[in-house]
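Lab notebook: predicted structure, single chain.

Context: the supervisor wants predicted structures on file for every construct in the current expression panel, including those that have not yet been purified. This is the next one on the list. No modifications to the sequence; it matches the entry in the shared construct table.
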Amino acid sequence: MKKVLTCLIVDDEPPAIRILEKYATQLPGLNCVGTTTKAIEVLQLVEKHQPDILFMDIQMPGLTGLQLSKLLQGQTRIVLTTAYGQFAMESYELEVTDYLLKPISFDRFIKAVEKVRKQLSSQEQRQSVGEEFFFVKTDGKNRFKKIRISDVYYLESVKNYVVFQLKNEQVVTYNTLKYFEKNLSTDHFIRIHKSYLVSLHKVEKTDTNSVWVLDKELPLGNTYKDEFFKRIDLKSI
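Prediction complete. Output recorded below exactly as produced.
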């Protein structure tokens, strides 16, 4: 059985939203979790729903789909929609998954969804065979840094960035902690606070309020205590 994917639809024209909503309803394995006609709401909705796919119009008042794509890189798979073909080259430079020209046919919509599904499946397969590294974007020039999972002690959320704490180095990337919580292996990492995700293998000691990693005391939030100590119990002898 196919995994159910989630999508968010953004367009300043309600009729365009209704078309894609209808397509999503007709396609098994796809669930629309939200829509908006306001570009300013996109960042908040992506943070809230963490959709697998973001269908987003390019030309919108306030912020364009291209501008939002730059801000959302790495947080979701983006499929841009537009009535104009001249944005195709720029959109692919932003590493969007697909680019749909209006009017969008159902079969072209399906092709875009399957393209996302294939990408996600490939990612899951790499994780399942024990991939020991990943890449994060470190600046605005499409530069990526390779990080070995075994080198990561913890991740810290600082405003709109995530800081990877390695033994003798910090790596900063523009993203959300929620994204890495969702995409990094749960065998290695666990959330302990709204601002911290730690490597369970690197935890040195803990009490009811703190977790020590790399000789640093990190806060243990009430929301995460039960799950954290449940994992600790599984490792105890």
